[in-house]
Recover the amino acids of this structure.
């Protein structure tokens, strides 16, 4: 199924008057404060987030998986789903593939399809956390860190293959997330594991095209529960520095121990020019991969405040690869992603409202109360009319979830694809 512009316009008509009233009110209020509303709207329109191919089907845990029916069962259908989300939100102009789950059969056909839906290929993800059917060596005890050279070589070669596949699609970055680590004290030699990982990453780095980036993702635990080789931003930063200038750290919001100050991590990585990518999600306990903004929206705003500051003040840091990395059991995955995109845009818009000059002056005065007031004033502003305006002008839906439901997207997908669909992937 493909959503045409007039379908979305029809869905918008009812809500148009109320949108205009709200927008008019907010835009006057912000303009009186000296804020350029048009500039913010343009920034919202330019902010595109990649959708991971594995989030389009209902996720699951080891305890079970409940289908949402009509899920995509091949790469074409996954890209079609991203196209649906993008048509409604105008914010999902990219897809992030996972190899080997998404190896294209016909590269030209896939590229054409993505192009027709205005979707780019963002970072490609390698997978050395599962054994593939045809593979000779097992990753049970690690991949790039493994004590066996044969295993390390297989994992290195897989990453080089992934680069090659991504290159044919127009991707410009490789994301490496390793499950490597240990479950019990004594199982691993920490130094050997890190050294092997560094050497393996350096070999992969050598195969990276000049205009590519390597994004190194860290995570404190899971699936290993005693130690993880790339456990934190410091380790990822160290490895990125060891590899070279095309290697960067990738921050996944769910990959921190409780109460970590993620906004500070983001800020320091940008200062050092080493923040390359971002995985959005939310969590209560660990890597819960819940809908963005569903649990800690203020923390998300504070993170965006640092991202906005960094994008304005750190030319040493490159443009970031933005991606949603969430997947779970109970919602229609497309509706879930739409909610995540809305939360991302909302936090971004609020961060754009922060008056950086006033904040700096209050910081210089050590006026702690005013510093907090400036941030909270931005956070407490209902920016949704700005998001609506940005979408409306780009041809998207005023209210994407409503439009998705009134246009009967899921039912249509079930009609086309059937009920018993299983998305490939996790
Ligand atoms: C795993 O926890 C990481 O968040 C990865 O970024 C990602 O979820 C994985 O590569 C998907 O298979
Ligand atoms: Zn991630
Ligand atoms: Zn994760």
């Amino acid at each position: 199924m493909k959503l045409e512009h007039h379908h979305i316009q029809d869905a918008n008509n009812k809500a148009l008057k109320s949108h205009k009233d709200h927008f008019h009110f907010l835009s006057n209020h912000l303009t009186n404060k000296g804020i350029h509303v048009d500039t913010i709207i343009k920034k919202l329109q330019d902010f595109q987030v990649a959708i991971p191919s594995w989030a389009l089907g209902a996720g699951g845990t080891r305890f079970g998986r409940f289908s949402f029916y009509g899920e995509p069962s091949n790469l074409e259908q996954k890209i079609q789903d991203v196209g649906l989300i993008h048509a409604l939100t105008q914010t999902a102009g990219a897809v992030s593939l996972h190899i080997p789950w998404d190896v294209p059969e016909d590269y030209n056909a896939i590229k054409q399809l993505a192009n027709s839906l205005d979707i780019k290929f963002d970072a490609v993800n390698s997978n050395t956390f599962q054994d593939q059917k045809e593979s000779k060596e097992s990753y049970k005890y690690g991949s790039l860190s493994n004590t066996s050279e044969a295993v390390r070589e297989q994992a290195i070669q897989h990453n080089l293959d992934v680069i090659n596949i991504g290159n044919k699609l127009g991707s410009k970055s490789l994301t490496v997330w390793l499950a490597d680590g240990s479950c019990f004290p004594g199982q691993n030699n920490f130094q050997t594991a890190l050294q092997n990982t560094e050497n393996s990453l350096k070999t992969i780095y050598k195969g990276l095209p000049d205009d590519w980036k390597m994004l190194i993702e860290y995570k404190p635990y899971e699936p290993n529960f005693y130690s993880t080789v790339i456990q934190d931003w410091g380790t990822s930063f160290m490895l990125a520095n060891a590899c070279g200038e095309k290697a960067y750290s990738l921050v996944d919001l769910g990959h921190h121990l409780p109460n970590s100050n993620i906004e500070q991590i983001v800020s320091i990585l940008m200062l050092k020019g080493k923040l390359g990518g971002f995985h959005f999600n939310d969590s209560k306990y660990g890597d819960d991969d819940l809908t963005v903004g569903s649990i800690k929206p203020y923390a998300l705003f504070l993170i965006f405040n640092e991202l906005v500051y960094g994008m304005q003040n750190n030319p040493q840091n490159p443009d970031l690869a933005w991606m949603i990395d969430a997947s779970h059991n109970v919602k229609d995955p497309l509706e879930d992603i739409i909610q995540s995109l809305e939360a991302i845009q909302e936090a971004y818009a609020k961060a754009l409202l922060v008056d950086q000059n006033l904040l700096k002056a209050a910081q210089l005065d050590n006026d702690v109360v005013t510093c907090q007031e400036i941030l909270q004033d931005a956070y407490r502003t209902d920016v949704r009319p700005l998001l609506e305006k940005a979408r409306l002008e780009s041809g998207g839906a005023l209210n994407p979830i409503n439009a998705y439901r009134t246009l009967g997207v899921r039912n249509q997908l079930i009609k086309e694809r059937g009920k018993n669909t299983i998305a490939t992937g996790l």
Remarks:
- The chain has one domain: 5-417.
